[in-house]
Amino acid sequence: MGTRWSVKLIARASVLPMLERGIQARLDEVVAQMSTWEAGSDISRYNRSAAGSVHTLPAEFSEVMAAALALAADTDGAYDPSIGPLVDLWGFGPAGARDAAPDPVALANAQARVGWRRLRFDAATRGMEQPGGAHVDLSSIAKGYGVDRVADYLLEQGIADCLVEVGGELRGHGRKPDATSWRVAVEQPGGGDEAAAVIALDGLAIATSGDYRRYFDVDGQRYSHTLDPRSGRPIAHPLASVTVLHPRCMQTDALATALTVLGAHAGMAYANRHGLAALFVLREGDGFVTRTTPAFVARQRSP
Which CATH code fits 169-301? Predict the structure, then answer.
């Protein structure tokens, strides 16, 4: 998926090679099924397939697809797994980077291929039909799912103390060797050593979505990699980043993206309505201000 993974854990040295093989195998499986950067993956084959063809998704792909579509429905399309044509058009996908905004005709053509309601998916049979031109992109949820696969595997192997990270998405269990919590600093946009928050992870996952990591500038205009599938364009509001806490990293990954697209007001309302632990960082003048949900404040106070 074009990123790195790392795991910190407490275990006997003799089992480390076996654990590393098990971790890599589970991440390789996620890549083989859900990476749009791999031409031979299940998702890439679906995206290239002819209109009307029906594909039986592997169980793991199906689980992620069901979660993505449920969130798309719940956010009325602010989150949309069919966003692939727009990701490529704006230069943030396998098609390669770009240094200019797309022209209106190209944007309209890509937008016509986007829409989560076009994806005919049957969770019971794991069947998904290609409606024609659909390009599914699960980059905003598959990394988190990979973290969950690894963490669940380690727990099954009796590893009670671990911190799993894939591309900046993390999930922690237990304690460090000194009996203190796995603590993760939430980066403050704009650089510097100051953290927006510090969170203890024990049975908890964390993910952050922001507009300050991947983007391109044209004539003073910043185009973020976070796209609003409803408009077809990069987000353009004062929200710089959103961090979400949840027991499952698949949910934190997708929810952080969804809340970022929704923006500060609608995103905060959604988070509070669903009892989500979320931290919003907004640009204000030359600096940043933070807004947190009550559930996030409660998590911060936890040991």
Answer: 3.10.520.10
pTM as predicted: 0.93
Mean of per-residue pLDDT scores for the chain:
91
245 pLDDT above the threshold of 60: yes
Closest CA relative to residue 136, chosen from 166, 114, 109: 114
Determine the average pLDDT of the residues in 164-193: 88
Rounded Cα distance, 185 and 253, in Å:
17
